[in-house]
Amino acid sequence: MRRVYSRKSMVEFEPRLVALTCLYLASKAEESIVQARNLVFYIKRLYPDEYKYELKDILGMEMKVLEALNYYLVVFHPYRSLSEFLQDAAINDVNMNQLTWGIVNDTYKMDLILVHPPYRIALACIYIASIHREKDITAWFEDLHEDMNLVKNIAMEILDFYENCRTITEERVNSAFSKLSLKP
Fold first, then answer.
1. 22, 34, 92, 119: least CB-packed within 10 angstroms?
2. pTM for this one?
3. Any idea where the domains of the chain sit in the sequence?
4. CA gap 40, 57 in Å, rounded
5. Interacting residues of 71 by C-beta distance below 8 A, sequence separation 6+
6. In this structure, is the dihedral angle defined by the CA atoms of residues 127, 86, 146 and 138, taken in order, positive or negative?
7. How far is it, in rounded angstroms, from Cα 72 to Cα 158?
8. CA end-to-end span of the chain, whole Å?
9. Helices and strands per DSSP (H, E), number in the chain
10. Angle, in degrees to the nearest 10, between helices 148-167 and 118-132
11. What is the CATH number of domain 78-166?
12. pLDDT tens digit sequence for 130-159
């Protein structure tokens, strides 16, 4: 869905319809097909008052979403690179490995996967974890011959995300909801 909206406007494509269409397309791409009519049936059952789309709407939006994605449904993830890098760096610290995997999981809450190559995201996560755990793997990074400025920039984006999450308090969320409920 993020990939669609990185190319198209939310005004152009209604988000609820795009979400269901992306779910339908993902099931087809992963070869565990969910029939569109079943999807419509269960969504209407879960959200009877909110959901107004029919089967024809999802099927019509399917082609629009595919066009927005240039018919390219493959997304590469940083997990494979991460496993190989952790093994190559001979990092046997279970806590550091878990921390690194957790950071990679958190990157899916951002648009990094749409902007940066997956292997660099994995390197940035290892970089953050190594600093946090005070592990010196500078020599390993140097052996990679990777542009560390790019890796550090990605790491800063991840750290900025964490910083922004910390500043979101319950009071700010409640205030935002109260402002939204005041609007007609």
1. 92
2. 0.68
3. 1-69, 78-166
4. 10
5. none
6. positive
7. 26
8. 28
9. 11, 0
10. 70
11. 1.10.472.10
12. 999 998 998 999 999 999 999 999 999 999
